[in-house]
Amino acid sequence: MDITHILDGLNERQREAVTAPVGNLLVVAGAGSGKTRVLVHRIAWLIEAEGASPHSVLAVTFTNKAAAEMRSRTEALLDAPPRAMWVGTFHGIAHRLLRMHWQDAGLPQNFQIIDSDDQQRLVRRVLRSLDLDEQRWPPRQACGFINKQKDEGRRAREVVTGEDHYLVTQKKIYESYEEVCRAGGVVDFAELLLRCHEMWLERPDVLEHYRNRFAHVLIDEFQDTNTIQYASVRVLAGDRSSVMAVGDDDQSIYGWRGAKIENIHRFSQDFRDTGIIRLEQNYRSTGTILKAANGLIDNNTDRLGKELWTASGDGDPILVHDAYNEVEEARFVADRSHEWIDGGNGADEIAVLYRSNAQSRPLEEAFLRADIPYRIYGGLRFFERAEIKNALAYMRMMNQRHADVAFERIVNLPPRGIGPKSVDAVRVLARERGVSLWQAAKEGIADGGLRGRTASVFAAFLALIDDMAAEAGTHSLREIARVCVETSGLVDYHKKEPGERGLARKENLEELVAACRRFETERTFPLDPRGDGGDEEAGSVLDDFLDQAALESGEYQAEAGAAVQMMTLHSAKGLEFPLVFITGLEEGLFPSKNSDGEPGRMEEERRLAYVGITRAMRQLYLTRAETRWMYGTDSYNPASRFLFELPDDTWQEVRLGGAVKRARFGAPTPRAVDAEDGALRIGQRVHHGKFGEGIVMQSEGHGERARVQVNFAEAGAKWLMLGFANLETLD
User: Fold this and answer.
1) Is the pLDDT of residue 702 over 90?
2) Which domains does the chain have, with CATH numbers?
3) Residue 309: what are its φ and ψ, rounded to 5°?
4) Is residue 442 flagged as an active site residue?
5) For the ranges 54-63, 264-273, 584-593, 717-726, which has the lowest average pLDDT?
6) Are 350 and 564 contacting, i.e. CB atoms less than 8 angstroms apart?
7) Fewer CB within 10 Å of terminal CB in the chain, N or C?
8) Which one of the listed residues 115, 151, 221, 328 is annotated catalytic?
9) Which ranges constitute the DSSP H helices of 615-680?
């Protein structure tokens, strides 16, 4: 069998990783070094050259998009679909296992996955039952505490509180939340991983089956694994499996959500006879950009170590802009973006990155003024939108009447006269009788537990759901969705909303129907209860779609046209753009003020800067503002330390009008404002006869048309025509 095609197009280090002997292997893959290519070719090599069965391969990624790409590229390389091979996210794999082994895991067969929004709804119910004030004990905070404990592998009974009132209360919330989830048969995202791990520990026969099956485990983005994920990999691998971990400790930027950089550092100690291969040739960025990234990250300690390089040449220098304030910074970004687009390039080739979402407002205003289309990347995703979540709740109720979370969401949507007191009455009945909200409403109507108007409005709701289920019958998933959005009244309800919002919601509901059609046609494999790659289905297509909607938020997110992509630095990981702006490089903003004094936080901030820099392919701009208005106050922050850590020969300073070299990030250089009676400079103190003293913030125009914005101590910011303002300079 000719297997040379598997190695075609690989560099020396990539070939070494792909053809390494079967065993434990750590691949330290730098940004843009082709790690996905290595993973795909490694799978093909195991199957074609080592004779491994696709049945024995488990590949784990961190996003559903990456999993789909890995599967399609593997199929193309092998020229056949390896159906028995498992490829998915940690959560997706855990969900699949729990569907097949629900009894072994102590779950009901029809358990429901809930997202973060529905998790907060359950926590609110818990807080009410415990008579706790939501203002003092925010549901979002409680959810964070619960999820963190689960990510660390701790049940509520295992949380150590001591005399700490905060921990005692959060533990009580966690305990009650566990009871509510158990009674309702619901599972949150963190529970998927913890429950699967516990099943393996408590059912050694099940664990042994999967240890024998998955002889080859490959894990992408290993630096992003948390405690429970790492523990699960170790348990599954045992002392027999071969594990290939691919990752980059220099791109570990999710410590705030539980990722443990020490996992990739410990891999060679915890997995015996581990080989280490470094992928350092970069296929994305210019030599100058890589030199800057290497110089920056060298300031971190305790690294696995690597040096990115490229064969594509040095390219242009990095351009640094030292703006007076955030408005001028935004104008600079918009102007340079305009130049890029006018040069025949696409707006969608531009990315504007920032540390905090709060930085986006002046940037958006500048793009609007410049008539440049933009898109906030990572905004509200398709399956997270309210109208879609409402429709999915109807679909779930049509399929599973005892889904309490769905019941609460749609019982009065569209409004049908069921108020909070009526819902509370049903909750009380459900608690007293130990039944679901649906069953409690049904019994309450029948035996007089609910009376008068309350009984009649609930009866109408129950009848609506039954009628919708009957109308949909055994039709296709697409038809079920159509019945759901139309018969429920959701389409008519949202059409009544004013302006573009109502139209957008209606179009999103129509897109849901289309998404259901795609799901039916593109469904690659059913749930596999035997675990042998067979075709026996464990649930209906509707069950599978609802589960995927919970697990894969954003899968069918509509893309904007050619538009500048605006996003946080955390959202940019895994992406690349020909032109990148990193804004707000100021102490206290980036690096964040929260990074001071906490071990490891400053190094993670530096890794975040490294990730941002390595998103750029051809041109990189770094900007800062000497004064910035944020959170209702002016701040005067020095330049970020990350700017000073760049090698001197990688950057050049520029201004709005063109490139000039000057003292590195020093005091602001006076900037002249044209006026017939002299010149003002940005940052100068002035006096106005009516408004008093102020500071010149920005300017536009020349000669008679010149005007300035002055921030007055008493009157606030005002735009003034220089020819008529009669401003007196004070310094």
Assistant:
1) no
2) 4-102+193-281 (3.40.50.300), 112-184 (1.10.10.160), 295-379+560-659 (3.40.50.300), 383-551 (1.10.486.10), 672-729 (2.40.10)
3) -145, 165
4) no
5) 717-726
6) yes
7) N
8) 221
9) 641-644
pLDDT at 365 over 80: yes
Asked about 221 being catalytic, the answer comes back as: yes
Helix/strand/coil for 425? helix
DSSP reduced 3-state for 68: helix
For residue 553, the one-letter residue type is S
The question of whether 615 is a catalytic residue gets the answer yes
**Closest alpha carbon to 487 in 625, 394, 420, 549:** 394
Cα 263 versus chain centre, distance = 21
From the list 19, 36, 274, 557, the catalytic residue is 36
Q: For residue 649, give the DSSP letter.
A: G
Q: How far is 320 from 643, CA to CA, in rounded Å?
A: 9
Q: Does the annotation mark 35 as catalytic? A: yes
Please name the residues in contact with 579: beta carbons below 8 A apart, sequence gap of 6 or more. Answer: 337, 340, 345, 349, 350, 351, 616, 618, 619, 620, 621
Q: Is the pLDDT of residue 700 over 70?
A: no
Q: Choose the catalytic residue: 195, 278, 615, 707.
A: 615
Q: How many beta carbons lie within 10 A of that of residue 113, not counting itself?
A: 20
- Of the candidates 233, 204, 180, which has an alpha carbon nearest to the alpha carbon of residue 104? 204
pLDDT, tens digit (0-9, with 9 covering 90-100), for 38-52: 999 999 999 999 999
Query: What is the rounded distance in angstroms from the CA atom of residue 503 to the CA atom of residue 489?
Result: 15
Q: What is the pLDDT of residue 535?
A: 37
The residue annotated as part of the active site, out of 35, 291, 506, 628, is 35
d(CA 200, CA 463): 43
Query: Tokens for 366?
Result: 């500048």
> Please, what is the Cα angle at 475 between 470 and 478, to 5 degrees?
115
Tokens read off for 647: 């090698």
- Where would I find the H helices in 578-731? 601-613, 641-644, 722-725
Which of these, 262, 306, 364, lies nearest to 33 by C-alpha position?
306
Cβ atoms within 10 A of the Cβ of 109, count? Answer: 10
Q: What average pLDDT is seen over the chain?
A: 86
Mapped onto helix, strand or coil, the DSSP state of residue 580 is strand
Task: Judge whether 190 and 226 are in contact, CB under 8 Å.
Answer: no
Options 115, 188, 220, 348, the catalytic residue: 220
pTM higher than the cut 0.90: no
Half-sphere exposure of 118 (CA within 13 A, CB side): 27
Would you mind telling me the total number of residues written for the chain in this entry? Answer: 731
